[in-house]
Amino acid sequence: MSEAKDPCILPAQPKSAVQTGSRLSGFRRYNPLTMSGRIYDLNAPDLPAQDHNNIWHTDRKSDHVLVFVHGVLSDSRGCWYREPTGAFPGVYWPDLVRDDGRFSNFSIYLGGYTTKVDSGRYEVSDCAVELFNGLRDREEGDRARSVLEHKTIVFVCHSMGGIVVRYMLTNWPWRFKDKRIGLALIASPSAGSPWADRLGLLIDYFDQEQVKELKWGNWRLEDLDGRFRTLLHDKGIANLYGAEACEQRFVFDKKWFRPLTPVVPKDSAGVYFGRVEMFPDTDHFTCVKPKDKDDPAHKFLVAFAPQSPVAIPPPSSRHSLPNRNHPSRRRFPAETAAANRSIGTSRSTKRATPTMK
User: Fold this and answer.
1) Closest CA to 229 of 114, 156, 133, 312
2) Cα separation, 9 vs 167, whole angstroms
3) What is the number of other CB atoms lying within 10 angstroms of the CB of residue 340?
4) Taking a C-beta distance cutoff of 8 angstroms, is the pair 269, 188 a contact?
5) Which of 125, 159, 197, 356 has its CA 20 to 30 A from that of 104?
6) At 242, which helix (H) or strand (E)?
């Protein structure tokens, strides 16, 4: 029986695009026995299955592709999806990009890697191999090309996704050297995150190697930083360009609490490509969940994706990685008080030390 003849279904309301943030549209299916009904959203995004990565979202058979790469303890579904609130629908960022005419020449690929609380010894290097294999391999069926067979590849990276992509580029630069590569690094802790240090006991309990590598000034991050700077300076990938952005505040924003350090501070998120853009009123998770086309994250990507490669200054003229003892690691009042007491004790001891004759 067709939908028009079904007495239990009322005519559908006019659809409204998800990216406009308009009210839900759909149909109401009534139960004749209870005379009650439920709204079914016709605009609900078609989300990938949980933990399902390295799949095509939209293939336009073009030479240009956007590759979304999620962060730690996330996947291609949860990282980019803003849950529905009130009368407004959920928004999936890849859908927003697909429906934006300014990206009409870009295909969209959902890249990723395995990252869970119990990932154990599965390190960033393993994640890079998994992502690279996904970009290299062709899917079964009528799909003619893999991601690596496109001329322009723009990586949209959140959090550890940026570290995984930079690791991949430094490991296999020859596979990207003849391409135009863009790196949109959003809240990516190039120098580490102070919160990875503060949660050290919990991380050690689960023996989660990926989060261990995100500790401030971790030697693996410093090694990757050196290799990536060399890649930029030597133009190992000649047409590589990038931009960096970060969140504004910590995940919990309560007026009666003292402001806490963001998960990825600005000086860790902005290291390689000049001025770092801060997305207003965002935390580490909402900074990659735009609600509409006017959201700062979406505007950032619109301005970034089509631009031409820029010249990369030599390492000597660029900022170095923030020191592991940077003040951004000491934002808790208890930590600051302990540090002040330590300094005061040191100074008083020095003054009280008699001069030897």
Assistant:
1) 312
2) 53
3) 10
4) yes
5) 159
6) strand 239-246
Residue-range domains of the chain with CATH: 3-41 (no CATH), 55-324 (3.40.50)
Q: Hey, what are 295's tokens?
A: 């959201």
Closest to 150 measured CA to CA, from 61, 242, 240: 61
Encoding tokens for residue 153?
A: 């590849």
CB 81 within 8 A of CB 90: yes
Q: Using CB atoms within 10 A of its CB, is residue 35 exposed (0-12), middle (13-18) or buried (19+)? A: exposed
Q: Give the CA distances from residue 257 to residues 59, 189, 198, 282, in Å, rounded to whole numbers and listed in that order.
A: 46, 24, 18, 17
pLDDT band at residue 206, thresholds of 50, 70 and 90?
low
* Whether the Cβ atoms of residue 139 and residue 49 lie closer than 8 Å to each other: no
Token reading at 140: 């079964």
Looking only at the bridges linking them, the beta strands covering 36-41 and 26-31 are antiparallel
Q: Specify the pTM.
A: 0.74
- Whole-angstrom CA distances from 337 to 257, 332, 341, 342 are 17, 9, 6, 9
Token pair 């073009």 is found at: 62
Closest Cα partner for 45 from 66, 10, 76?
76
